[in-house]
Amino acid sequence: MKDFQYQALPMRVTFGAGSLKSLPEEVRGLGLKRVLVLSTPFQEDLARQVSDQLGELSAGVHAEAEMHVPIESAHRAREVAKAAGADGYVAVGGGSTTGLGKAIALEFGAPIIAVPTTYAGSEMTPIWGLTAEGEKKTGRDPKVLPSSVIYDPELTLSLPVGMSVTSGFNAIAHAVEALYAPDGSPIISLMAEEGTRALINALPTIVKDPADAEARSDALYGAWLCGATLGATTMSLHHKLCHTLGGTFNLPHAETHTVVLPYALAYNAAHAPEAVAALQRATGAQDPAAYLRQLSLDLGAPSSLRELGLTDADVETVVELATRNPYANPRPVTAEGIRALVTAALNGDPV
Ligand code: NAD
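^ Maleylacetate reductase, sequence as received from the core. Prediction below:
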């Protein structure tokens, strides 16, 4: 056994179909009296139902969450929270909504209760993100880690099939990079392997039948585990590339993760034998990178970065940004290596 350090993050998780009904209890359990319910405009109806369920514990609904938390949207939400006298936030939705809750908590420090409806995993991390003048900044702060998370698979039944697949791959990407993270540990590797297994088994069933309750439950269970590995470790090349592609070229978050993951894993594989062994067990495949690529295509995910809006002219900028600051990665990050990786992902070449 290699040496390791492991710092457990406090996590209170309630998991199960219908578990949303425990929300008022969770709010009271945290000693909160007036929580502001957050959502995107698209999920406002759900947020209103949640607010109604909370009754006098609700300080109202703020349904203005946006992708990547623009700083103006954070300012607005903080004003609304202050005016409503909120002493906590309930984030109902995906990573964008949880991100808005984190932006408020970063300023005011009050607890967040997250009710995730995608597989992005933000609810398990102390990582915040804010976008100002076209640049997305992220940081870690324990006060943005949700105090309580309610995973209710029934809320994911409405997640469109395409988003379910790409969001699932977004989760698997956390697990893959946690398996070779510089600060990984045996317990995180167990979670990463199990989370990957749960998702790759559940996603094909969800594509066939998005209403399959068991597959939805398994996928959300996998997303929890993968999110926890993201919160506990430092990510490497894959996340660095996706951050650049999303932040600088505005490529869609989950789809970009889905396309890049097999190429990033193939780049690192020979330098991360234990991670590959764990992924071989999870996938049952000899070459996990090729397996993930084929699975994403079989499940109808986008197949190239070109399809997502990247062009040949952008490649050098990605190479420059991805190699500008050093970071831990199993295989040395070279301009030549990244150019080959990004070009292959741009064209959707075989992995
Ligand atoms: P999202 O939150 O942007 O959601 C996309 C759209 O899908 C929204 O309109 C949303 O309302 C809708 N939606 C969500 N759940 C739905 C459901 N069950 N049914 C129908 N529609 C639903 O997407 P995301 O991929 O969850 O989050 C992406 C964002 O989260 C990015 O900004 C990313 O950087 C961030 N993120 C942060 C962390 C972190 O640790 N800080 C981790 C992962 C992702």
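DSSP finds 13 helices and eight strands in the chain.
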